[in-house]
Amino acid sequence: AEVPTSVFGDKLREQVEERLAFYETGEPPRKNLDVMKEAVVEANEVVAEVKRKQEKKEKKKKKREKRQLEALAAAAEVENSVLETEENDIEPKKKKKKKQQELEAEVELEENGLEEEALPKKKRKLMVEADQEEEEEEKKKKKKKKKEKE
């Protein structure tokens, strides 16, 4: 009853044809009980076959989905590992750079002491600009190195 089949309809059609043949030739048709027993047996066979096919399709579908999930997971792992390595490469450099700048600033203050404040504004501005240019050059060098690695 779960899987629709055309077995019963086919058997009923055969019965009608047998009855028509009875009027033409006089050959007696099979009894309804016998025909329905045959129909039940055939219907069970057809239902079993259909269920087997559905189970195979479901198994194939599950396998396909599992493979796709595994492929996606593998791709995600590769992306994560690449991102992690990039983040690991970038973050320590930034931290080191910040620490180096802070150390340099402290050393300059210790060396210069109050001399920095005594310098005229123009000279201070020139020194700051020179420091900024050096930092930009270092950034450019690092970018080139990254591009070469890729």
Describe what this molecule looks like in 3D.
This protein is mainly α and 150 residues long. It has four helices and no strands. Helix 1 (7-25) runs antiparallel to helix 2 (32-112). The longest helix has 81 residues, at 32-112. The two termini are 63 Å apart. The mean pLDDT is 80.
Helix and strand arrangement:
Blueprint: H1 7-25, H2 32-112, H3 115-118, H4 121-149
Helix pairs in contact: 1-2
H/E series, N to C?
A: HHHH
Round the Cα radius of gyration to an integer and report it: 43 Å
Q: Tell me the number of strands.
A: 0
Give the integer mean of the pLDDT values: 80
Question: The biggest beta sheet, please?
Answer: none
Helix content: over 70%
Name the beta content range.
under 5%
- Write down the overall geometry: rod-shaped
| Low-pLDDT residue spans | none
Number of helices: 4
Distance between the termini: 63 Å
What structural class do you assign from the helix and strand content? mainly alpha
Short key terms for the protein model shown above:
single chain, 150 residues, mainly alpha, 4 helices, 89% helix, rod-shaped
